[in-house]
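Deliverable D5.2: sample structural annotation.
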Amino acid sequence: MGYRRSYSNRYDNNYAIAGAHDTTGRWRSEAWHMDGGANDEGWHQAWCSYCNRNTEHGRGSGCVPCGDRIVSSKAKQVKTVKAVNLNPFKLDRWAVLKLYEVSEGPLYGFLKSLKESNEMRSLTSKQVEVGAKVLGKVIDVDIIDRLWSRITVRNENMAIEVGSIVRLKSAVNPMVVIDDNGRGEILLENLESGTKSWCVNDDRWLVIK
């Protein structure tokens, strides 16, 4: 059945109503006919090329299952929140304490408490100040200033040479460079265990001294 528009001159204003008469002769809206007479709200079955089947459609709103998928997809999207590092100097200060242990043996008293505090949270300014005085009796002032007190900026681009003390960016064990084969590899000796190994000289390493 074709649709036609019915015109009315109510209040002398012409307006159109899309639709057609049903089999009983009663006038029905276009939405009623689109849904096979099931409702008068515009919901109807139509082919969806994405779903590859007939699905429920809303007049002017498209395929209902496709719309549901879009809403569900947006709801599942998780915003990535960059974690805030509450103790950014943890590994540097831990490495300094390791150097002290290599030279003087196990930590006791105040220095042991500093190590435990540093593992859990950022040290207070007072802890850093007193720790620098104690550690400075054994560790070079340059190392204390750069890695412990952070008075001077740590240069992450310092060249690695024979004699340099380095550590992995993700670890704290200090190692000394004892050889360089000139082919991008360096021989490292772990100051704590004494073990030696050849490693690639790349951006995984930080220079302590």
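Annotation notes: The first helix runs from residue 30 to 34. The mean pLDDT is 79.
The annotation will be released with the project's public dataset once the embargo ends.
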